[in-house]
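To assess whether ligand presence alters the predicted conformation, the chain was also submitted together with calcium ion. Input:
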Amino acid sequence: RVGVTRIPVVVHVVFNTAAQNLSEDQITSQIDVLNEDFRALNPDIDQVPPVWKPLVADSRIEFHLATQDPQGQPTDGITRTQTQAAKFNIRTNTVKHASSGGHDAWPADRYLNLWVCPRIFDPADPNEILGYAQFPGGPAETDGVVIGHRFFGTTGTASAPFNGGRTATHEVGHWLNLLHIWGDDGQGCNGGDLVADTPNSGGPNFGTPTFPKLSCSNDPDGDMFVNYMDYTDDQGMFMFTKGQVARMEAALDSARSSFNG
Ligand code: ARG
Ligand code: ZN
Ligand code: CA
């Protein structure tokens, strides 16, 4: 892959109350954050601890609201659907189907589908889910990223500490095949993210930890909690690594190659 890959995005706004029918400003604020973060142009990048600065990578991936709909007609890249549902099931993907109160996906080989909805829940988890993504290689009808409206963009209904647009950065990372940096093995030290330059780490980090935060004999530098693929607050995550960018590249060269060229 040479140059920059530009990915057309359709934002499906699925709202119950009028306040959840997000402004165009809130939507473009999210696209702007994606473009900063994936190009390593985010203004907070200087907060990366010096030891990891050499690993910071520009993915050469950019995002823009689609200008043509699936039929080739002009569009602003936003669909708006009022729904009776106040929450959507992460297991059954109800937001991704008009028949269950959501909106059907646009062709997943041509668009990144980004659904924004009132609330996401997991029947097995009492906590609200900020967002979720489908990894490359899954069914087209459910491909894309889903985000709760309060965790989307940097203005409007976006609410602290998840009002920095980083939920979408994290989820689009998954959509491009990135795994969590702690390896999803609970607090264990055997799981990995299949990326060599992110330190082996125990479990997820939350909030805004202080450097260094040690686990899994990863001293002296410890967990890379400033990585977008950890669980820290939006104001505490600033980077993808070179190894992560190589993994996203590999996805763009295979399962997601329809977005190249
Ligand atoms: N819980 C979500 C996931 O596992 C997203 C976490 C996003 N973190 C954030 N600071 N916005 O995919
Ligand atoms: Zn995640
Ligand atoms: Ca681990």
